[in-house]
UniProtKB/TrEMBL annotation:
Keywords: Membrane, Transmembrane, Transmembrane helix. The chain crosses the membrane at residues 29-48, 55-78, 84-108, 115-137. This is Uncharacterized protein. It comes from Xenopus laevis (African clawed frog).
Length: 141
């Protein structure tokens, strides 16, 4: 009976040792599982960060495209303004050249007209002089 109770006590002690070892393995397995969950959470966070980074890269590419389009539009507007300025300048220059030519034509035609008037006056002077001479000289004969 003592032997049976000793065997029973040894069996209980062995069961307690095995339960303790099982508890240690369960705690270690729980810790490993917790670290695996933490690693998966870190991986999920990194994947989310990678997704956000990809979205930010895409957004920066879209913004760069918008800025490029804006710069092209600004360049086209500036080029059209320069072209309009050049056209306006050429039109003004053409108008000024035409005005100068018209003014030169008017001055030259006025000079020609003045010369004609002067020639007419000189001719009238000679006619008047010949008339006066004929009036003065005729009674003498």
């Amino acid at each position: 009976m003592v032997l049976a109770s000793m065997v029973l006590a040894f069996m209980v002690l062995a069961f307690l040792v095995l339960a303790f070892i099982d508890l240690v393995f369960l705690v270690l397995a729980s810790l490993v599982l917790a670290f695996m969950v933490l690693a998966f959470m870190v991986l999920a966070f990194l994947a989310l960060a990678s997704l956000v980074h990809a979205f930010l890269v895409l957004a920066s590419l879209v913004l760069a495209f918008i800025v490029l389009v804006f710069l092209v539009l600004v360049f086209l507007v500036l080029a059209s303004l320069v072209l309009a300025f050049l056209v306006l300048t050429s039109l003004v220059l053409v108008f000024l050249i035409r005005a100068f030519l018209v003014l030169a034509f008017l001055v030259l035609s006025s000079l020609v007209l003045a010369c004609l008037v002067l020639a007419f006056l000189v001719l009238n002077f000679f006619v008047l002089a010949s008339l006066v001479l004929s009036l003065v000289v005729t009674p003498c004969f």
